[in-house]
Write a structure and sequence with these properties.
Blueprint (H helix, E strand, L loop, with lengths): L6 H18 L4 E6 L2 H8 L12 H11 L3 E6 L6 H4 L1
Parallel strand pairs: 1-2
Length: 87
């Protein structure tokens, strides 16, 4: 994606893409990992009506649509454990 305007948006795009791929592969038990606390908290919340940034709403909805039938977990990893992605 070339139009990401924030780190949060880039993370939301990445997790939406991961959800699409896992859905197409018919994977049922999935653990998604992110080092973005805001995104993890939002996606784990029951009420997803108010995203931390309205520009990610489309991507979080794509994530929800593609993961509603499986057993999913969204886990927060510490940035020090995610150095490759941060570089």
């Amino acid at each position: 994606m070339t139009g990401a305007t924030s780190v949060l948006m880039a993370e939301a795009v990445a997790i939406a893409l991961a959800a699409i791929v896992t859905d197409r592969l018919n994977l049922q038990q999935i653990h998604f990992l992110s080092d973005n606390q805001q995104l993890v908290q939002f996606l784990n919340d029951v009420d997803q009506g108010n995203p931390p940034d309205w520009r990610i709403k489309h991507f979080t909805q794509v994530f929800t649509n593609h993961t509603r039938h499986g057993d999913k977990r969204i886990l927060k990893v510490h940035r020090s454990q995610n150095q490759t992605a941060d570089n």
